[in-house]
UniProtKB/TrEMBL annotation:
InterPro entries: ADH-like_N, ER, GroES-like_sf, NAD(P)-bd_dom_sf, Quin_OxRdtase/zeta-crystal_CS, YIM1/Zinc_Alcohol_DH_Fams
Top-level taxon in the UniProt lineage: Bacteria
GO molecular function, one term: zinc ion binding
Name the record gives this protein: NADPH:quinone reductase-like Zn-dependent oxidoreductase
Entry keyword set: Oxidoreductase
PROSITE patterns cross-referenced by the UniProt entry: QOR_ZETA_CRYSTAL (PS01162)
PANTHER family found in the cross-reference section: ALCOHOL DEHYDROGENASE RELATED, RETICULON-4-INTERACTING PROTEIN 1, MITOCHONDRIAL
Amino acid sequence: MKAIVIDQYGDKDVLQEREVDQPSIQENQVLLEIHATSINPIDWKVRAGYLTDMLPFEFPIILGWDAAGIIVEKGSNVTNFEVGERVFTRPATTRQGTYAEYAPVDENLLAKMPASMSFEEAAAIPLAGLTAWQCLVDFAGVKKDDKVLIHAGAGGVGTFAIQIAKSLGAYVTTTASEENEEFVKSLGADQVINYKTEDFSQILHDYDFVLDSMGGEVQSNSYKVLKPKGKLVSIAAPPNEEEAQKYEVEAGFLWLDPKGEQLQKLADLYEAGKLKAVIGETFDFNEKSLQAAHALSETHHARGKIVIKVK
């Protein structure tokens, strides 16, 4: 099968196209024929060697941890999915990722695609959508009328977080550039802070929850907008415990735990018209396109998700 692999850590040019063996599956897995995948920051962070302590993979490595496609084979213990079904997934974080024509996926990480959902839409949802869900629902327990601040609302996680927070009945504020103001409002944002010209920490007060995807100074200033006993979760950098205690805030760092049943809840929101996948750019499945897609993701200015059409 065709795959894009890396044999060493480095810049985007280490992404190389080649033929590799089609993977075999275990009894609790399916073999997924991948029709689309997407780019996430974890992809180029692994590629650059930033996550070697956390993910000590052996080379060669196939990156990519989002996929949508069709089941072409299933293990003997797989009971809830059938060959021929259209599914999407955030597969386990292994060295056998989704920049490939086929990938093995554990049954408990699969969700069934709604009939109206395209493979490109489905591939855009899992990692970013599940991250947003786990921040808002699992960590924060966001409920009706909560005031929520979502940083970088036009980004991959941000676009899903705005929509999920609105589906929970929250009042949603987000930071974005002037060019993206109408876009994030179209997703449901009630208030937009122009991060280039306005200081959110001087404008907002008594918020229940902040989703931090930036780290650094943005994270530190985010404590100022929270009410005592408010919550902050970061997907960028572990919060400083002393800072959190100073502001009497519950703060944590979230590393995604993939779950098929939660992905199915996102599929339900999609079917109910409460969630859409925002695809900023679509690339073909080849070496040069993947290199260009990585370069775009590394700018931190991609709108929505970057999707790769595999089939």
